Amino acid sequence: MSEAILREILKEYDEIQREESLALAARRQRVIKAVPEISKIHEELIETMGRYSRETILHPNNSGSILKNLKQEIARLKARESELLIEHGYPSNYMEIRHRCNKCKDTGYVGNPVKEKCSCLIQRLLERTYEMSNIQELELENFSTFDPKVFPETPLENSKLNQREYMLQVRDRLFNYVSSFPKNERRTILFTGKTGLGKTFLLNCMAKAIMDDGYTVIRISSYKLFDRLFFGSISDEPDNLALLRQLFEADVLIIDDLGTETRRNNYTAEDLFNIINERTMKGSHTFLSTNLNLSELQDRYSDRIASRLFDTSNTMLIRFQGADVRLRQSKKNSRHYS
Ligand SMILES: Nc1ncnc2c1ncn2[C@@H]1O[C@H](COP(=O)(O)OP(=O)(O)O)[C@@H](O)[C@H]1O
Ligand SMILES: [Mg+2]
């Protein structure tokens, strides 16, 4: 992955840290103005913390009572500060810095002494490097914005449920799946069904929930994935190797719209098989959607892939059915899935 992208993203992390410390300063000002008592405690706290750090620098081997007393004093003042904040109607952590990522505290790196990229940084690198569908899309399409009303209450064939009830059941099932992630029995999920049935939406719901738990997710359309692999392989770009590595390493790989990619002899089929196979063997998760059915998959790829994908001992198969919901929507679909 390119150094330039990494530098650009690390600059954003610096900016986040700056914004958060400004926000903290503003919160402090507000409290200090409103509640002088907290302001007094807060000054004492800063004073004591200063003494503590001076003491550790000046007498690094001094594990004695001075440090112990200072530590106790800091704990007491902190507890008192929280108490007062709550008494005056503020959250108890109001005077503490907020982090968007609690793992790396918005530095992008974790681990001591050996620093490693935090999963939030890896995720940003993935999104930026492969120009995957806009991450902001996940703010619009996630479990909390799932709207059952977009699905009609029309009965479905071969089901006691109508389309809306059915989709609610699918949603619950997938919600439970991501709640137990990554300890799922079946690690491949295949969505099948025509367009406009909510497959991409639910893939996005899952991606968001899993990313929010700190895992890395590659979301890519089949079309884009295989174009990248194909053009990368003929140009022998180093980026192609990085993409391949990420396809194997990401905690979750989501390939949307399998079957829409350009056919290039057996190239796609072999790659697809290798990717899915390797990931399955490693116990990694792969989610796919397609509007092809079993026999179309067999035709297009191979028996080997089709039977692997439709093997319900490895794959959780979810069939989407009913009416195209895009036709019911008054709002124009503004999603750009590349
Ligand atoms: N559960 C849902 N709640 C709200 N909108 C939805 C939901 N499912 C689908 N949509 C919307 O309906 C349209 C079609 O859904 P989409 O996920 O693209 O279907 P598919 O991937 O099966 O073609 C999109 O505009 C999407 O935002
Ligand atoms: Mg789709």
Describe the protein in words.
Helices cover 53% and strands 9% of the residues. It is α/β, with parallel strands linked by helices and 338 residues long. The protein has two domains: 3-110, no CATH class; 130-327, 3-Layer(aba) Sandwich (Rossmann fold), CATH 3.40.50.300. Strand 5, helix 10 and strand 6 form a beta-alpha-beta unit. Helix 1 (3-34) crosses helix 4, helix 2 packs antiparallel against helix 3 (65-87) and helix 6 packs parallel to helix 7. The model has no long low-confidence stretch (mean pLDDT 88). Magnesium ion binds at residues 199-200, 256-257.
In short:
The protein is an alpha/beta fold and 338 residues long. It has helices at 3-34, 36-58, 65-87, 119-129, 137-140, 163-179, 199-212, 222-235, 238-249, 267-282, 294-300, 303-309, and strands at residues 109-110, 116-117, 188-192, 217-221, 252-258, 285-290, 315-319.
